[in-house]
Amino acid sequence: MVPSAARARKLDTQNFGAVRVLSAWLLVACVKRSPRSARLPLRDALGLDAARALYGKLLAVPAPGGDLYRVALRIEEAAAGMPPASSSGSGAAAVVPAVVALPKAAAKRVTDLYEAAVAAYGRSEADLWIGYARWVVAGGKGAGKVYWRATKELAEPDGFVAAYREAIGQQ
């Protein structure tokens, strides 16, 4: 049984460590149920500001996991009104979103999340780099810097290079 949003907020404000762990699990579980849907159950239940506050607290806890970053990125991309650039297991063949002009604050939030995600998991998770490159391209910029950083950071860059060429369309 999932607690009500008000109860979850009350417990979280009391700083119970177990509630944070449970919240992280629920956050990831909600998205894993429907990775491609535009519906974000946690954001819908708590509201955008509360979802941001929750994932902000959870990201401060050591080793939140790549899935938590993916969920936070999906929340911010959806809030910005654009299709998700981050891949959540859907493969590299997803289409690059069209160029979208976003408010600076929204673009900074997404960029900061990508930076944190690749800093934490960029050595092993090529899909985070692909999502970051899609995000940069969707913002109207070239993804050359992201590509270069990924090839230097990843332990196995060959898979990334192939996925990047397929996803971004550059050779």
What does the model show?
- This protein is an all-alpha fold and 171 residues long.
- The chain contains nine helices and no strands.
- It has helices spanning 5-13, 17-33, 41-46, 48-60, 66-79, 104-121, 126-138, 144-153, 157-168.
- Helix 6 packs antiparallel against helix 7, helix 7 (126-138) packs parallel to helix 9 (157-168) and helix 8 (144-153) runs antiparallel to helix 9 (157-168).
- The radius of gyration is 16 Å and the shape is globular.
- The model is unreliable at 1-5, 7-16 and 87-96 (pLDDT under 50).
Q: What's the N-to-C terminus distance?
A: 49 Å
Q: Number of helix segments?
A: 9
State the total count of DSSP E strands.
0
Biggest β-sheet strands, sense, barrel: none
Beta-strand residue fraction: under 5%
Structural class estimated from helices and strands: mainly alpha
Mean pLDDT: 74
Short description:
Helix content is 65%, strand content 0%. It has helices spanning 5-13, 17-33, 41-46, 48-60, 66-79, 104-121, 126-138, 144-153, 157-168.
Task: Provide the descriptors you would attach to this structure in a database record.
about 170 residues, mainly alpha, about 65% helix, disordered N terminus
Task: Indicate the topology.
Blueprint (H helix, E strand, L loop, with lengths): L4 H9 L3 H17 L7 H6 L1 H13 L5 H14 L24 H18 L4 H13 L5 H10 L3 H12 L3
